[in-house]
Design goal:
single chain; 366 residues; TIM Barrel; two-stranded antiparallel sheet; 13 strands; globular
């Protein structure tokens, strides 16, 4: 199994300066390759303390210059927030800079604060995502972008520097709602799992996705990649106390950033699944929902973390994982200790588990 590290750049309630967050998160991220991780990932968000990475490709370009071996993954580039021609150029440029180390993750976004900040209509996000994804993915295969679409009238223009190898098999899309499964299957992309619901429900979605993928493409879907929030400690009781606290605290930032206690998602086209979250929060309460989220995550002793990841693998068959180790204002020395213990005790065992993923195999041929 392939193992990735994903810094979050979170500054909950602005408890630190943004500069302090960046200095520490970059310090931890630069440990990933020496510690033996296979990849480095980052997410895209805007305008709030939730995650301060407005340009994930720019961060990955920085990491490309700091590393020589690790793959560089976006989880995700939110396509409706960008000009698709520019996205295709940025991706090709990073792939050229890094010698073919990029793994492309794409998504459509959920935050009203972000859609409003970019003056965009959330109700068109699903259609926009599909059209933009078509432009970007075909462009990376053909070497040029061209589209007479509903949202974009793109004249034919070359992508320079030219893409020098295919992104097929190393492109993934974040998908949480069941309605997204046929869309991602039709695009021919793998799934990037951002855990938000019980793993057995995720498995049901995957069963549908695999069926749709075979119908649309005539072949089996690539193995998925799976994110998550990690905390590792030698002591089981301490691992549970700290892991549950900080991961629960993280989920409270999710509720705040996405305004899940509000009703703006009710009846909004393309977000039917998410409208149920506010009802769930009303039933469970913020604390109860945050604890439910934390229980999904791989915290514990090294043995417990390994066993939890193997359990998830029995359900969804992930070829790789990407872990967040620093979140919700966890002290950086605590995050670093957890990260190093994971790298020493858990990661070598995960890397022994057989896994085939075109994303990684393809990147090795660069």
């Amino acid at each position: 199994m392939y193992v990735g590290y994903s810094p979050l750049f979170q500054n909950r309630d602005n408890a630190r300066s943004d500069l302090e967050v960046y200095q520490n998160e970059l310090r931890l991220a630069e440990m990933a390759e020496p510690l033996g991780f296979d990849s480095v990932w980052s997410v895209e968000h805007h305008f709030t303390d939730y995650t301060m990475v407005p340009d994930v490709v720019q961060f990955l370009s920085y990491m490309a210059g700091k590393t020589s071996r690790v793959k560089l993954g976006s989880m995700v580039v939110v396509l409706p927030w960008h000009d698709p021609m520019r996205v295709a150029e940025q991706i090709s440029m990073l792939d050229n800079l890094s010698g073919g180390r990029m793994i492309l993750g794409i998504g459509r976004g959920l935050g009203r604060v972000e859609y409003d900040g970019f003056r965009l209509n959330m109700g068109e996000s699903r259609e926009t995502f599909s059209e933009y994804a078509d432009i970007v993915l075909n462009g990376l295969e053909n070497g040029y972008c061209e589209k007479d679409g509903k949202f974009v009238k793109q004249p034919k223009r070359d992508i320079r520097p030219r893409p020098f190898k295919s992104f097929k098999g190393r492109t993934f899309a974040a998908a949480v709602s069941p309605e997204s499964m046929p869309i991602m299957a039709e695009l021919g992309v793998g799934l990037l799992v951002i855990p938000q619901k019980p793993w057995k429900e995720v498995k049901k979605d995957f069963d549908d996705y695999h069926r749709f993928f075979r119908e649309a493409n005539g072949v089996d879907a690539p193995s998925p990649l799976c994110g998550g929030f990690y905390y590792v400690d030698e002591n089981a009781d301490r691992a549970e106390a700290i892991g549950m606290k900080y991961i629960s605290d993280y989920y409270k930032t999710v509720i705040k950033h996405y305004e899940f206690m509000d009703t703006h998602l009710h009846g909004l086209k393309g977000y039917e699944f998410y409208s149920g979250i506010s009802k769930y929060l009303t039933k469970r309460g913020v604390d109860g929902a945050s604890e439910d989220f934390a229980k999904l995550m791989p915290w514990g002793t090294p043995e417990q973390v390994y066993d939890k990841l193997m359990y998830i693998r029995t359900l969804i068959g992930q070829a790789g994982v990407m872990g967040h180790f620093s979140y919700a204002n966890m002290p950086y020395d605590m995050a670093e200790k957890s990260l190093k213990l994971f790298a020493k005790e858990v990661m070598p065992e995960l890397q022994k588990v057989p896994a085939e993923s075109p994303a990684y195999a393809d990147a090795e041929t660069a």
